[in-house]
Structures
1.
Amino acid sequence: ALTVEANEQNKRRRQILNEFLDLKGNIRVFCRVKPLSPVDKDSKNLRAPVASDTRNVIIKLTEGKRKTYNFDKVFQPDSSQDDVFLEIEPVIKSVIDGYNACIFAYGQTGTGKTFTMEGLPESPGVVPRAIKGLFKQVEQSNHTFVIKFSMLEIYMGNLRDLLVSQATKPISPIPPSLLIHTDAKGEIDIENLVTLKVSDFDQVFKLYKLGCRNRATASTNSNSASSRSHCMIRVSITCTGAPERRRETNKIWLVDLGGSERVLKTKATGRRFDEGKAINLSLSALGDVINSLQRKNAHIPYRNSKLTQVLKDSLGKDSKTLMLVHVSRKEDDLCETICSLNFATRAKNIHLGQDQTKE
Ligand code: ADP
C-alpha cells in the first residue's frame, strides 16, 4: 500500500510541476482555510461562513446570498503540512533552475500564517521544508552551489536584522541601518545585512531558530506581538562555472507578513495603533504594487514601502511569486476574511512580462 501511495504522490508531484511550468511568470495564489478550534466550535461561531473545495472558497454573505472566490488551490481545514508543501515544491525547484522566488503568507492575525511558514516541531512548515528541499536539489545537481542565509523583520517601517541579537539594544527608535540598494543588474542589495554561508540544513535551522528567538525577544521588549512585523528569510544560491544559467545568483524570500486586520477596526491605541498602521500601510503598498503589475502600468510603486523595496526583484519580471492567503471560518472574522479574499483575488491572473518592472 505504501508503494502505491508513494507512486501516486510522485505522479501528483510531476503533474504539479508541469502545471507550474505552464504558468511561466504568473503569480500563484493559494488559500488555506484554518480549522475551527474546539473553543470556536462550541461558541456562537458555529455557523462557519467559509465552505470550500480544492479551487473555491464560498462565503455565505446572508441567507441565500453567496460569493465564490476562485484560487489556484484551496487547502481545506484538514489539509496537512505535507499537502501544502507538495504544491509549493515547484517554486523551490525553480530557484535551482535560475529564477528568483518569493513565497508569502498573508492574512489576519491568528489565521495560521506562522503555522504554515514555521510550523510546529512535530509538523514543520514551509520554511524548514523549503530549506531542506533546496539542499536536496543542490545535492542532486551536477553544479556546485554556494548557499547563503539572512533573516530580517520589518517593524514600524524599519528593517531589523534578526541574526543580530536585539536583546541589549534600545528598541525605539530603531536606527534604519540597513540600506536598500539596487545594483547595476537591477538586483536588490541590503547593505549591512548579516548574510551567512551555510553548508547543511542543520546549520540553517539553527540560524533560523536564532532569528525566531531574536524576533520574540525584540517583540517582548517593545511590548508587541510578532504579528506586528513582517518576518523575512532570504536564501540565496550562487552557481559558479555554469555560463548557460540565466543568472549566477538566485534567491528565494520566505515571508510571514504581519496581520492584515484593519487597525481602525481593532480599536488599538498607542504603540499598538502605530504598529498596526505601519503593517496596514505596507500591505496596502504591496497590494498597489501587485495591482500595478496586473494593470501593466509603466510605473510600479515599489518605493512606497520597505516591504516592496526589499521584494522588488522578486515581484515582477520572471520571478516566481506565491501568495498563501489565510482565512478563518469564524463568523466574527467574516469582514476580515472577505478583505483577505479580495486582496488575494487582486493578486491573481497577473501575467508578468519583461517590460513591467520599470519604476
Ligand atoms: P498567525 O501567524 O496568522 O497569527 P498562527 O500561525 O499563530 O496565526 O495560528 C494561531 C493558532 O492556530 C496557533 O496555535 C496555530 O498552531 C493554530 N493553527 C493555525 N493553523 C492551523 C492549522 N491549519 N491546523 C492546526 N492548527 C492551526
Note: The two ends are 54 Å apart (CA to CA).
2.
Amino acid sequence: MNARTFFIAALTGAVLVLGACGTKQSTSEGTAPEAKDAGAAKYTIGMSQCNLGEPWRVQMNQDIQAAAAGHPELKVIFKDAQNDSLRQRSQIEEYVGAGVDLIIISPKEAAPLTAPVAAAFAKGIPVIVLDRRVLGDAFTCFIGADNKRIGRAAGAWIVQRLGGKGKIVELKGLMTSTPGQDRNSGFREGIRGSGLEIVFEADMKWLEPDARQEMESALARFPKIDLVYAHNDPGAHGAYLAAQAAGRDKEILFVGIDGLPHEGQVYVKQGILAASFEYPTGGREAIETALKILAGETVSKEITLSSRVFTKENIAAGGEWLKKP
Ligand code: FRU
C-alpha cells in the first residue's frame, strides 16, 4: 500500500487485507478510486454486495474471497450497499469511474439496479450478476440457482408432507427482488390442485425480525396454522420464534430456503425446520467465471446452480438433490 492509498484508506475507514496466497482483497466503502493503484495484481474486480446483515451474504463474500485466494493475479474489492438500492447504484458507478476490470453485483432489487449495470456493460466492463437478477439482458452473465424450481419443489414437498391439505402461512422475501417473486410463483405452481390453503401471506423482506412480527399477526388471527413456508431460513426462524412465544411451535411445521451449513442445516438437525432448501451463494462460480471472462473466453449468459433439500431424514446423508425440471 503506498502512502496515498494508506491515507485514503485511513480517511474512509477502509480496511485493506492481504488475502491468503497473495490475492489482494479489500473490504470497505471507498477504496474503488484506488483500484488500479495498489499492488501488482493484474486484474481488479469490484464486488457490490447488497447487504452484509444476513449470514447468507457474509457466506457469499467468503466464498468469493476463498475462490480468489488462489489467484494472485486478482484483486477483489468488496463494497456493502447496506440494503440500499441507491447506495448500490453509486457503488457500480464508482467502480466504473475507477476503471475496474470486472464487476460482480448481487443486487438488492431488480429495477433500480438495471440502468447502472447496463451502463457499466455498455462501457465494456464485464458484469456478473449474482443471485438476484436485474431486468433485461445488458450484462455479461447471470449466476444463480433456479428459484422457481426451488419454490415448486418446496410446494410439492409440502403437499406431500401435509397429505394434500392444510392451512399455510407464506412469508415472502422482498417482492421487488427476483428470488422473492420466483419463490412465490414456483410455490403456487407446486401446490396447484392440492387442498392447501394460504390463509396469510406477507412480505417480510428477507428479514427475521419482520418475519417474526408478521407471524405474530398470523397467530393472532388464525387459531389453526399447519405450516409456514418462508422464502428464507431467517424468515422461517423468525416465524418459529413467534410461534414458540405463543406456545404454538409444536403444532406448526416450518420450511425455509438457504440451507447454510451453520444456519438452515442446523435448524433442521435441531428439529426447528422441517425442511430447508439449499440456495448456493455462487461465490466460487462467480470467480471461476470472472477468470474465464478476463482470459477472453466466452461464457454462458446464464449459469444455473443446483440445489438440495435438507430434512431430518436425509441430512446425515448430505441432503437430496432437486430434480431438473
Ligand atoms: C440474503 C437473502 C437470502 C436469500 C437471498 C435471495 O439477503 O435474503 O436469505 O436466499 O437473499 O436473494
Note: The chain is about 40% helix and 25% strand.
3.
Amino acid sequence: MTKTALVTGAARGIGLATTRLLLEAGWRVAMIDRDAPELEAACAGLDGAQAFICDVSEPEAVEAMVAEVQAAFGSIDALVNNAGVADFGPIAETDFARWRRVMATNLDGVFLVSQACAPALQAAKGAIVNIASISGLRASTLRVAYGTSKAAVIQLTKQQAAELGEYGVRVNCVCPGPVRTKLAMAVHSQEIIDAYHDAIPLNRYGSEQEIAEVIVFLCSEKASYVTGQIIAADGGFESTGVGLP
Ligand code: NAD
C-alpha cells in the first residue's frame, strides 16, 4: 500500500527537496506550509502531493490540518518536522518577542505536529524525522534563540524515541550543516560563508538534495532498526571543533 508522509515547511528549500525525493520513492506527500502562494506553486504538478496551508505554531490549526490530512490520505506513515525560521542576533538584542518567534516555529511546531500525528503514526508503526541543525550541537555567537531551539529539538527527539518506541514508532533527528536556502542566505554574511568553507572538511555548503537523502532514508524501512539518533549531514563540520564568527 502507498505510504503517506507529512512534510512541514514543504514550500521550498530542504522541505521541497524532501517532498520530491519521497514522491520519487513512491510515497504520497502532504505538503504543509504557512506561505500559501509559495506552497501552492511548489505543489502544482507534483503527482501524489497535496498542499495543506498551516502555521505549525498554532495548536488549533495543527489539529485541524492533521485531521484534514488523515481524511485525504487515510494514514500518516512518516512525519518530517522541517518547518523552521532563522534568527541571528546577540543576546542583548534578543527581546522576548524575538525569542518567542523562534521557539514558536522551531520548537513548539515540532511538539504540536508530532503530538497531533502520534495516534496515526502509532497505528502505522511509522517514523518521525525532526530537522534540527549543527547550531543545536555546537554554540557559536549570534545563535542564542536559534541554537537553543535546535538543541531542544535534539532532546525532544530522544524523548519521543524513548516514549514512542513501544508503539513501533521510530524517531530520529537530522542536523544539517549550511545549505544555500532562503533561510540561510538571509542571515549568512560573507564572513560566515567564508568561515564555513574553511571550517567544513569538505570545504563547501551542502545541497537540499544531500540533506533530503538522509531524511528519506530515515523515513524508510531501510532504517527499521534506527531510532533516537542525531545525525549530522554537515560535510564533517561538527566533528572538527573549528569555530565560527
Ligand atoms: P526555507 O526558509 O527555505 O524553508 C522553510 C520553510 O518553512 C518555508 O517554506 C517557510 O514558509 C516554512 N515555515 C516557516 N515557519 C513556518 C510555520 N510556523 N508554519 C509552517 N511553515 C513554516 O529553509 P530551509 O533552509 O529549507 O530550512 C528547513 C529546515 O532546515 C529548518 O528547520 C532549518 O532550521 C533547518 N536547517 C537549515 C539549514 C540551512 O543552512 N539552510 C541548516 C541547518 C538547519
Note: The pocket of nicotinamide-adenine-dinucleotide is lined by residues 8-9, 11-15, 33-35, 55-57, 82-85, 105, 109, 131, 133, 176, 178-179, 181-184 (CB under 6 Å).
4.
Amino acid sequence: MTTALITGITGQDGAYLAQLLLEKGYRVIGLIRRSASSDVVGERLRWLGILDRVELKDGDLTDISSLIRVIHETQPDEVYNLAAQSFVAASWHQPLLTGTVTGLGAVNILEALRIIRPQARFYQASSSEMYGLIQEPVQNERTPFYARSPYACAKLFAHSMTVNYRESFGMFACCGILFNHESPLRGIEFVTRKITDGVARIKLGRADHLTLGNLEARRDWGHAKDYVRAMWLMLQQDVAEDYVVATGKTSSIRDFCRLAFEHAGLDATEFVRTSPSLLRPAEVDLLLGDASKAKSKLGWTPVKSLQEIATEMVDADIARHSSRQ
Ligand code: NDP
Ligand code: GDR
C-alpha cells in the first residue's frame, strides 16, 4: 500500500486530494495543527465523509521537529505540501508569518525529507500568483515571475527551493503552478465563495447586498477536484518536473458575479456594491494559463466549466444556509 503524507489536509485541496488518494487505495496521513476549536477541525474531511479514513498526526510546518517525527513514524512514499497561509490579502497584514509558513515551511519539509526519507516523492503547491505583474499575456512554465504580494514572494521562494533540492540532491520534487481553483469547500474569504455565500444569503432574505473590491481583475478559474488529479499525476511520472495547471480561459470577478447571481434568478447589478477598503495594495490584474505541457505529458485536462463551478457552489451555499434555519 502506498503511503501519502498531506500537509494542509484540512484545507480545500487537502480534503479533495485525500479523497482521491483513498479512492486509489492509498494510506493517507494528514498533518494537522492543534486548534482551540477542535470540534470544527477536519470539517471539510467530514463533509466529504472521509474524516475517519485518514490518519491525522499533529504537527506544524514551522516546527521541523514535528515534521521529522511524523515522517519518521509514517515513512511516506509521497508527500504533498499543501499547507500555507494561502490568503493573498492577509499576507500584507502578516508578511512575516506568511514568509515563515508559506516560504520557509516548504524548506522545513524538504530538509526533513532530505535527511530521513530522501526517496519520497515531493509535491510543492506553487501558484499562478508568482506571475503577478504579467510579463506575457498567456503564462506557461517559461514565463518570468514577478511577485506582487508577500504571499507570492513566499511562494516564489518555496518554488525556487523545491527546484534547487531537485537539482542539488536529486530528490523527486515537483512544483505544480496551479491557477485559481474553486469548489464548495473553498474558504469563505476567497472571492468566488464570498460571492456564492452572498448569493445564498440574498436569495434566502438574510442579506440585501454584497460588498466586493476590484471587479475587473481576471482569473483563470478551474475546479479543485480536477486540479488535485494533476498533483497526483505529477508524482506518477518517471522524471520530476514542474507543470502549469490551468483551464486556458479567463473571466473577471464581475463575470463570476453574473454567473452566480443568474443561477439563483437574481441580477448581480442590483446587489453588488464595491468598497475601496477591499482593494489590495498591489493587484494581479490578469491570469491566463497555458497547460499544454500538463495536457501532453500528464494527459491531464480540466473537466468542469466555470458555469458548472458557480452552479455547484451556489447550490451548496443555499443548502448550507437553508439547513441553518
Ligand atoms: P487552504 O487555505 O484551504 O488550506 C491551507 C491549509 O494549510 C490548511 O489545511 C491549513 O490548516 C494549513 N496550514 C496553514 N498554516 C499551517 C502551518 N503552520 N502548519 C501546518 N498546516 C498549516 O488552501 P487551498 O487548499 O486552497 O490551497 C492548497 C495549497 O495550494 C496552498 O499552499 C495554496 O497556497 C496553494 N494554491 C492554492 C490555489 C487555489 O486556487 N486554491 C492555487 C495555487 C496554489 P488549518 O485548517 O489549521 O488552517
Ligand atoms: P487570489 O484569490 O488572490 O487570486 O488567490 P481571491 O479569491 O482572494 O482573489 C481573486 C481576485 O478577486 C479580487 N476581489 C476580491 N477578493 C477577495 N478575496 N474578496 C473580495 O471581496 C474581493 N473583491 C475583489 C481580488 O482583488 C483578486 O484580484 C487565490 C488563493 O487561493 C491563493 O492561495 C492562490 O495561490 C491563488 O488563488 C492562485
Note: Residues 186-219+249-287+303-323 form a domain with the UDP-galactose 4-epimerase; domain 1 fold (CATH 3.90.25.10).
